[in-house]
Amino acid sequence: MSITECYRFVSDDLTSASGSLSWRVGEWNEVSGTIVCCAHGLHASPTPRDSVRNVYGQRWFAAEARGETSHQGTKFAASEMRLVEEIPPDVLRHFAAGCAKRSFGYLEERHPVDARILQCIEATQGFLDGVLGTDDLLEGRRAAGAVVADPATGPDTGRLTAAAMAASRAADGDAAPWTAAAAGAAHAANVAADAIDAAAALTTAYAGIHNVAKGFAAANIAEQAATAARTAAASGAVAHAAAVAAAGGTYAPDTASDAYFAAWSAATAHPADRHYLAQNAHLLELLAGSRARHA
Length: 295
What we know:
Layout: E1 4-10, E2 29-30, E3 42-44, H1 48-53, E4 59-72, E5 75-87, H2 89-108, H3 115-129, H4 134-148, H5 155-172, H6 175-207, H7 212-248, H8 261-268, H9 274-293
Antiparallel strand pairs: 1-4, 2-5, 3-5, 4-5
Helix pairs in contact: 2-3, 2-5, 2-6, 2-9, 3-4, 3-5, 4-5, 5-6, 6-7, 7-8
């Protein structure tokens, strides 16, 4: 029987956050009946980045699945699953700060970015590295918060600010939901910047239409701009939902009755883009480093 490596969260007491199933590291759990993702089965995500997006609990584990499976978007359900290795919360915290820092660099390539956001990110990184204290962390958080009130803050900068503040919260708070919010907001900032670039290119293209060939070219650019706008809107919705969940101490919604379910569902229609894949690669590096240190 083939085994699939995966990732999942559980509650502090090693129970499933959305049920009463108990887990013991290394022991297989099994459910009977037809497996249907989001309805019946043992759930996990195939990649660490997908798992951070689907946070249901405080403790994070590398896991293994086997048996019957059912896939949906960024997660799947299996008939058998076991927890293999717990991942330290500091991996999540450093990932959150790294997402914000990388997003800052991406936006800075396109336009000036308020230095108060970088102050928050660097204070978070310094706190995690043990070279700065709680007062420095809070000062950086307050500095980033002041950016929100600036009327000149654009959509990409606003989302970057949210990423920096969520990473700061992850540093001294519940790592799992705040990291989900930070990673989601950082991704949303990047794709918002892409949408702005696409809109500018569209304006330029239409301004130069004088013949049929240029008209077709502009139409192609218009399609690209529309795709970028849809991706930015969906990513922003996911980031907002993650932030609401983090602030409320709850986790990602999974029922149609939840007010934020539509936000999460909208983003599943878009395949993982280069920003999302880069975040996953960064998280894999952090996981490898953590395992090497604890080997």
